[in-house]
Design brief:
The protein is of the alpha/beta class. It has ten helices and 13 strands. It has helices at 27-39, 55-61, 80-90, 108-121, 136-142, 149-164, 204-213, 232-245, 278-286, 305-319, and strands at 8-12, 44-47, 52-54, 74-76, 95-98, 101-102, 126-131, 169-172, 177-181, 195-199, 216-220, 253-260, 293-300. The strands form three sheets. It has an eight-stranded parallel β-barrel, surrounded by five helices. The protein has a two-stranded antiparallel sheet with strand order 3-4. It has a two-stranded antiparallel ribbon with strand order 8-9.
Amino acid sequence: MGTARDLTFGFILPQWLRAMGGVTARGRDLLAVARLAERSGFDSLWLVDHFCFERYADQVDHGFQPPEQLRGVKAGAWECWTTLAALAVATERATIGTLVTNTGYRNPALLAHMANTVDELSDGRLILGLGAGDYRSEYEMHGYPWDRRVGRFEEALQIIRPMLRGESVAFSGEFYKVQGTELVLRGPRPDGPPVMIGLIHGGPRMQRLVTEYADAWDCWLAFSDSRPEAYVKQRDAMYAACERHGRDPATIRQHVTVGVAPPGYTWGSPGTPLTGEPGTVAEQLAGFAEYGVSQICINADPKTEASVEWLGRVIEAVRA
């Protein structure tokens, strides 16, 4: 079990509409925040994978009660992978990753090539976060099939994972078929970037896929309860899945995404974020270490440069 000083910290960048305290980040703004976060002590930088969606409908799908004024209002984000390629060359030290990319939005063989290329551009700093998708409105707006998402996800993993390891893949499933595809040009790491699977309400099947394919798993607490004690139930369920499927839980890195609202700001998303002065928030974040967490990603509201600098002081307090 690690200590609080062993924790690494990530920051979700202001990639979507009005994420910078009511202001929408342009490309140069997003990259400036990324470079500031790198200088402020963050170990990793993250992008979500969304295009255009109706926040009200999707929050209702997940059991939340959003404000009525959001009904019918569309939200959007800069596309994840083109932004990630820019991030790869605009930063120097921090790990970069997807939290998480939806395998239903891109052919899985294509996605493996994209990940391999971004890993090359970043000199081996990519974490490939993968998921089965969670926004019904976005699927329907863009013509992607919403049905049987976990089944599609499982087939995608059977193509992506061996390709990243350098294998030539022939696969014929119900949803995908490839014939001898491989990464002829190989990125900087022999086994490719590590794969992280993200869960919000992960059931037994998604938990099994974590045990079979993941180097790490992300537990998204940012829209529920971000306190360390809220994580225990999710962790124990994953430990039980590891036992059922013969995976040593110590071989899967535990990654948690939490919500943090700096002083003076009103949390604009579902759930209960961490709040307080830097020392108070640092103490709460440090508590995750005793539950086996090695990396914490922060979903801050707002995602401004002032928030990044304030969170830098929080990270310093954790490591003091």
